[in-house]
Structure formats: structure tokens, C-alpha cells
From TrEMBL:
Tagged with keyword Metal-binding: yes
InterPro entries, alphabetized: Calcineurin-like_PHP, FN3_dom, Metallo-depent_PP-like, MPP_PAP, PAPs-like, PAPs_C, PAPs_N, Purple_acid_Pase-like_N
Annotated family: Belongs to the metallophosphoesterase superfamily. Purple acid phosphatase family.
Organism: Ananas comosus
Enzyme Commission numbers on file: 3.1.3.2
Ranges for domain Fibronectin type-III: 54-149
Protein name: Purple acid phosphatase
Originating gene: LOC109719329
Secretion signal, residue range per the UniProt entry: 1-23
Alphabetized GO MF terms: acid phosphatase activity; metal ion binding
Keywords per UniProt: Glycoprotein, Hydrolase, Iron, Metal-binding, Signal, Zinc
Superkingdom: Eukaryota
The reaction(s) this protein catalyses: a phosphate monoester + H2O = an alcohol + phosphate
Length: 456
């Protein structure tokens, strides 16, 4: 054999091996592993707005089932102050007004500021609104754009962030997200402030987190999921009610979707039906969450909202050694419903790394038949773990080896993602890693709708 022919033969063998190996990718990108430290309390991002009793920690979320409502929330530090929200379109920014409800809470020897939640209703679709909170020289103005009317071919782009915290890395993630002009609403998959990292869950770190994220959260709705760092129980100081700070500070339109708890609910937005679940509330048969979800699936209409998306903190498919199989009990209970109802995407956090799965299911097992391997399933969702916002616990840089064949892509870096829904059949998904100061695309994929394009 001539030398050239031999090299060609070797090249062909290598090519053959590469094309046969259809397993997932473990990214070779290695981020410098440094300690993740919280930004000090006197950092620029935590600065209080000027003026006596000025509203701070301003944030919004969807306020109804279909996108014509917005909940505006803020905190005043010294006294209740005004409960008024003035809002309107550019032509008359104070055309309408609404009154907020006030709440406060104590946590050990911490007393919260005055927390206001105000529901703006019957807004026009696809409209830029300005809103103002506070009074006189301490008042502050923000704006948001309502989504288009719910419909099957309405393009819309969601951002996705999880496990954000308040470190220097968190600040990079938020900065990159803010510079990504595509995303119009954020799907947040749990673990917000990590205040529970501090002795007795120092709740001042809930306040600093609220001030930190305001530069994004005041302008576009954050659709929140509760994570384990929202549980916040400290029996030593008799704080035994789970989710107390979270539920006081962050409201959700749960009643609009027939839920009895702000920890699980759903919304429709543009062409998506989004279901938010709670990994840390009861979900076995006969529990409120179980019964609510069973009923919620019957309300999903893919002719109206083709895209069915679930947010849940603890991932069901995760090939990282951190938190391995913690989502297993919920998977066993709900996975067959996800397959029957052809859920398109499931976003989770919890594991501080990034991973995307193949479309797989593991629902055949019945105790005796040994069928307990995840198998390719065209009716199953893609599972995305994106707990890589950048919190104080650092990266989860220890994947199981070899990479299981259900895992399509995995990488231990911080970042955020966007889901660009184009129409009822196509959505473009991309994950943007924080590459030491800049953002770059680490992983991307076209997602074909399970109802309208099940063959792809
Ligand atoms: C704005 O709307 C308010 C309330 O309807 C009204 O009193 C006011 O005159 C309007 N201002 C302008 C400039 O149209
Ligand atoms: C609150 O409790 C912590 C821990 O016991 C203590 O260090 C701090 O001084 C207390 N603060 C007040 C205002 O009592
Ligand atoms: C803000 O208004 C208050 C009361 O109206 C006044 O006492 C204060 O001097 C004003 N502050 C500034 C910075 O204008
Ligand atoms: C956080 O990031 C912003 C830019 O997105 C920057 O202006 C600010 O100085 C940063 N703060 C800290 C404490 O790193
Ligand atoms: C589903 O939505 C379509 C389009 O809006 C509507 O025509 C149809 O009646 C709905 N189906 C049900 C069962 O509500
Ligand atoms: C479990 O699956 C096996 C094989 O599919 C079947 O023969 C058996 O009846 C099943 N057991 C139960 C309890 O459904
Ligand atoms: C992974 O490999 C197992 C065993 O070879 C196979 O049964 C299964 O279908 C594969 N799963 C995927 C998602 O390819
Ligand atoms: C990675 O996780 C495995 C399983 O928990 C453990 O045995 C191993 O020591 C870990 N490796 C490192 C470098 O932490
Ligand atoms: C849906 O969007 C995809 C991607 O932009 C495009 O290729 C396709 O033609 C669109 N489908 C329809 C029916 O417009
Ligand atoms: Fe978590």
C-alpha cells in the first residue's frame, strides 16, 4: 500500500469511528476555577436609591393567566410610604393608578422593610408601559412591555437563569443577560439570594439581592421557581415556616391557574404554556400539587399555546455527581404525564453546571420487569439543567464518567440561556457561557415542537 493510500485508509477509519460515536459531548472548555465570593454589601450593585424612604428592590412578574396583568413589587426601608403605582403608555405615563398591598415579616431579630405588591390588570397586549412608585423626589420610574396576545404562531424569546446568588460571577451572568436584547421575560429556575449561606440566614442578603437584580427585574417579568435555598427554616431561632422570606417578597399569579400555593402555578405567555413546579413541596398522589398538575395538563391547548414548558428546581436527568438523583422521586411520579402530554422542554437548576439531555424517558419500569434504562423517546421533553448562574457555592465540576448516553452536552461553566420561539414548530435554544468577562455561545440546538413536529 502506498503511503498516501495508507493515510487515507487511517483517516477513513477515524472518520468512521467518529461518526459512529453518537454519544454526548463533555465540553473541553475549562473555566479557571476560582473561589466564588459574594460581592461585599457596600458594592455598587447593592447601593440604595437616593431620597428619603426611596422604593428599592423593584421587580415585576406576570400577574394573571394570559399576560394582561403585571404584579409590581417594591420595598420601602423606613416607613410604609405611598402604596400607589402610577402607570400608562408613553403618551400619558400617569393615566392609570393602582394600590399595593403591604406586608412585612420578622425573621429572628431581623425585621423586613415595607414590602409592597400591586397588581396592574387589563393591560393592552404588546404595549410599552411606564410605571412610577414612591412619591415626590424619592419616586422612581421604570417600564415594561406586555407580551403579545396568546396565540399559536406568536414569536417570543425567553431568557433562562438558575441559582444566581450574589457573587462577582452572578454579576457577570446578570450583565450578560442584560446585554442580550432578545429575551423579553425570564424563566428563573430557583435559588435566588443564597441568604441562607449566612449565619441565621441573615435576611439583609435578601434585601441586597433584591437591589442587585432590580436593573433587570424591574423591566421584565421574572417567572420564579422556588429552590431549596428558598426554604429558609432555622429551628434554633424558631423559624420553622418554610419559604417565609421568599413568599413575602415574591408573589406569583397562582390563583389565576387554580393553584392553592404560590409555589406551583402556571401561566400562558405568547405561544407558551409554562408550568412551574415545587421540588420541595409535597407531590405524591392526593397532594394538592399532584391534583393541581393533573388538572392543569387537561387545560393545555396546543392549538393555542404550542409550546409546553416546565420549570422545576431539582433536575430529573443529571449526570453530575452533585445532587445526583435528587429529582428521582418526583420523576417517578410525574414523568409519564410529561410523555403523555408531550412536554417540549423542562428547565431545572440546583446543579451548578450546564447540561442538555437527549429526548428520553424512563417510564417502563414496574418493579419486576427490569426495564429501568432511559430510552430514546420522541414524545419526551429535552431536559436542561442550568443551575449555573454563579452563586457562592461555586461550580459543580465533577461529572459521572463515562458520560451516559442520555446526556447530549455538559459543561461546568457559569452562564444563561435564551429560547427563541419562532412559530408553532421551531424554537432556537442557545446557552451562553461566561467566558471570563465576555459571553459566548457554548451550546445551541433547534427544538422542534412535540405536538406540531413530532417527527423531527
Ligand atoms: C393623563 O391621564 C389622567 C388620568 O386619566 C388625566 O387626568 C390627565 O389629564 C392625562 N394627561 C394628559 C397629558 O393627557
Ligand atoms: C441579631 O442576632 C445576631 C446573632 O445572634 C447578632 O449578632 C446581632 O447583633 C443581632 N442584632 C440585633 C439588632 O439584635
Ligand atoms: C425631598 O423632599 C423633601 C420633602 O418634600 C425635602 O424635605 C427634601 O429636602 C427633598 N430632598 C431633595 C434632595 O430634594
Ligand atoms: C457588576 O456589573 C456591572 C456591569 O454589568 C458593573 O457596572 C458593576 O461595577 C459590577 N459590580 C461589581 C461589584 O462587580
Ligand atoms: C383550543 O384553542 C383553539 C384556538 O384558540 C380553539 O379554537 C379551540 O376551541 C380550543 N380548544 C379547546 C378544547 O378549548
Ligand atoms: C411488569 O411488566 C412485565 C413485562 O412487561 C409484565 O409481564 C408484568 O405483568 C408487569 N407487572 C405489573 C405489576 O404490571
Ligand atoms: C443507551 O444505551 C442503552 C444500552 O445500550 C440503550 O438501551 C438505550 O436505548 C440508550 N439510550 C439512548 C438515549 O440512546
Ligand atoms: C467526584 O464524585 C465521586 C462520586 O461522588 C467521588 O467519588 C469523587 O471523589 C469526586 N471527585 C472529586 C475530584 O471530587
Ligand atoms: C417556522 O420557523 C422556522 C425557523 O425560522 C422556519 O424555517 C419555518 O419555515 C417556519 N414555519 C412556518 C410555517 O412559517
Ligand atoms: Fe438548589
Amino acid at each position: 500500500m502506498g503511503k498516501v493510500t495508507m493515510m487515507l485508509a487511517i483517516a477513513l477509519v477515524i472518520l468512521h469511528l467518529v461518526s459512529r460515536c453518537r454519544g454526548g459531548v463533555t465540553s473541553s472548555y475549562r473555566r479557571k476555577l476560582e473561589a466564588s465570593v459574594d460581592m461585599p454589601l457596600n458594592s455598587d450593585v447593592f447601593r440604595r436609591p437616593p431620597g428619603y424612604n426611596a422604593p428599592e428592590q423593584v421587580h415585576i412578574t406576570q400577574g394573571d393567566y394570559v399576560g394582561r396583568g403585571v404584579i409590581v413589587s417594591w420595598v420601602t426601608p423606613v416607613e410604609p410610604g405611598s402604596d400607589l403605582v402610577l402607570y400608562g403608555p408613553a403618551s400619558n405615563k400617569s393615566k392609570y393608578q393602582a394600590h399595593a398591598r403591604l406586608t412585612t415579616y420578622k425573621f429572628g431579630n431581623y425585621t423586613s422593610g415595607y414590602i409592597h405588591h400591586c397588581k396592574l390588570k387589563n393591560l393592552d397586549y404588546n404595549t410599552l408601559y411606564y410605571y412610577r412608585v414612591g412619591i415626590g423626589n424619592s419616586s422612581r420610574e421604570f417600564s415594561f412591555t406586555t407580551p403579545p396576545e396568546v396565540g399559536p404562531d406568536v414569536p417570543y424569546t425567553f431568557g433562562i437563569i438558575g441559582d444566581l446568588g450574589q457573587t462577582f460571577d452572578s454579576n457577570q451572568t446578570l450583565g450578560h443577560y442584560a446585554s442580550n436584547e432578545l429575551a423579553k421575560a425570564l424563566l428563573f429556575v430557583g435559588d435566588l439570594s443564597y441568604a441562607d449561606h449566612y449565619p441565621l440566614h441573615d435576611n439583609r442578603r435578601w434585601d441586597s439581592w433584591g437591589r442587585f437584580v432590580e436593573r433587570v427585574a424591574a423591566y421584565q417579568p421574572w417567572i420564579l421557581t422556588a429552590g431549596n435555598h428558598e426554604i429558609d427554616t432555622v429551628p434554633e431561632i424558631h423559624e420553622t415556616t418554610p419559604f417565609k422570606p421568599y413568599i413575602h417578597r415574591y408573589h406569583a399569579p397562582f390563583k389565576a391557574s387554580g393553584s392553592t400555593s404560590p409555589l406551583w402555578y402556571s401561566i400562558k405567555r405568547a405561544s407558551a404554556h409554562i408550568i412551574v413546579l415545587s421540588s420541595y413541596s409535597a407531590y405524591a398522589k392526593y397532594t394538592p400539587q399532584y391534583e393541581w398538575l393533573q388538572n392543569e395538563f387537561t387545560k393545555v391547548n396546543r392549538s393555542e399555546t404550542p409550546w409546553l414548558i416546565v420549570l422545576v428546581h431539582s433536575p430529573w436527568y443529571n449526570s453530575n455527581n452533585y445532587h445526583y438523583m435528587e429529582g428521582e422521586t418526583m420523576r417517578v411520579i410525574f414523568e409519564s404525564w410529561f410523555v403523555q402530554n408531550k412536554v417540549d422542554l423542562v428547565f431545572s437548576g440546583h446543579v451548578h453546571a450546564y447540561e442538555r439531555s437527549e429526548r428520553i424517558s424512563n417510564i417502563a419500569y414496574n418493579i419486576t420487569n427490569k426495564e429501568c434504562t432511559p430510552i430514546p423517546d420522541p414524545s419526551a421533553p429535552v431536559y436542561i439543567t442550568i443551575g449555573d448562574g454563579g452563586n457562592i457555592e461555586g461550580l459543580a465540576n465533577n461529572f459521572t464518567e463515562p458520560q451516559p448516553n442520555y446526556s447530549a452536552y455538559r459543561e461546568a461553566s457559569f452562564g444563561h440561556a435564551t429560547l427563541e420561539i419562532k412559530n408553532r414548530t421551531h424554537a432556537y435554544y442557545s446557552w451562553h457561557r461566561n467566558s471570563d468577562g465576555i459571553k459566548e455561545v457554548g451550546d445551541s440546538a433547534w427544538i422542534y415542537n412535540r405536538y406540531w413536529r413530532p417527527d423531527e
